[in-house]
Design a protein that fits this description.
three-stranded antiparallel beta sheet; 11 strands
Length: 276
């Protein structure tokens, strides 16, 4: 094969590698990847053996390695350094794949919860039978105060992050039933993040399985007290004994609708001493 047939122009090589000519020019300028041959006319030519080299550089970049680190490796390349690099990046890729699988499961669960929320009928009081549930909870007295809310939320999120709690559920809160009866709408005691199963080493609040009086409220937090009044009135009319607190869950928030008043909230309290 003639020498001229053993080389590619910049455009040809870029097409083979799935990049632009600008990328090759840039890599040449910063010393990461240069053409094998420079013609007397200044044209760049690449050798077939360079395809594999470029593919490895592309993979490293795809894995998030900065160009400066790639250049540092290339400046001291050797078989030993190559083996170390491949093993290290292989481990990093394995961890990334595991993380992406967790994120995929999280997104799928979030989609499932959204479909369930879209199927409810707001404005109705119902009795629902629920399985046992688990919550990562944080003390939250004064959560309705804007200044305190920021600190409470930060403390809650720090705990979740420190314990690698990843959940598809929005932040919820607990309002004691007696506080609602007195009209104390600032009486929230806890905020929480629901999880689908117990997590080792994480302190959890448990909601028992059983019947729950439930109301779906469409609107903002400013009008949610009307939902609590309806639940209390319905329980009194039916002679039901409610558990000690209401669970306030956000089913749809600003990810699903524009505006603070487009939320869908679920208010619920356990029904005690009766079978359904």
């Amino acid at each position: 094969m003639a020498q001229n047939d053993m080389r590619f122009t910049t455009g040809e090589f870029a097409a083979l590698c799935g990049v632009t000519k600008h990328t090759l020019f840039h890599y040449d300028e910063i010393g990461i990847f240069s053409p094998a041959i420079r013609g007397e006319n200044g044209y760049r030519y690449y050798a077939p053996a360079q395809i594999e080299v470029f593919q490895v550089i592309a993979v490293l970049k795809e894995l998030g390695m900065p160009l400066a680190e790639i250049r540092a490796y290339l400046d001291r390349r050797s078989p030993e350094h190559l083996l170390d690099l491949l093993e290290r990046e292989g481990t990093a890729l394995k961890e990334k794949i595991a993380r992406l699988r967790r994120l995929r499961a999280l997104i799928a669960r979030k989609a499932e919860l959204t479909r369930q929320a879209m199927a409810v009928r707001p404005g109705q009081v119902t009795v629902e039978t629920w399985p046992q549930r688990w919550y990562v909870a944080t003390d939250a007295p004064g959560i309705t105060d804007e200044g305190k809310y920021v600190h409470i939320l930060a403390r809650h999120l720090e705990y979740c992050e420190a314990h690698q709690v990843v959940s598809p559920y929005a932040l919820g809160a607990i309002l004691p039933v007696e506080a609602a009866r007195r009209g104390n709408w600032e009486g929230y005691t806890l905020c929480y993040t629901q999880v689908d199963k117990p997590i080792r080493g994480v302190r959890l609040l448990t909601a028992p399985a059983g019947p729950y009086l439930t109301y779906f409220h469409a609107g903002s937090f400013d009008t949610v007290r009307e939902g609590y009044r309806r639940l209390l009135a319905w329980a009194e009319e039916k002679g039901l004994t409610l558990g000690p607190h209401f669970w306030e869950d956000v089913l749809l928030d600003e990810l699903a609708g524009k505006g603070y008043d487009q939320y869908l909230l679920r208010l619920s309290a356990a029904i005690e001493g009766q079978d359904f």
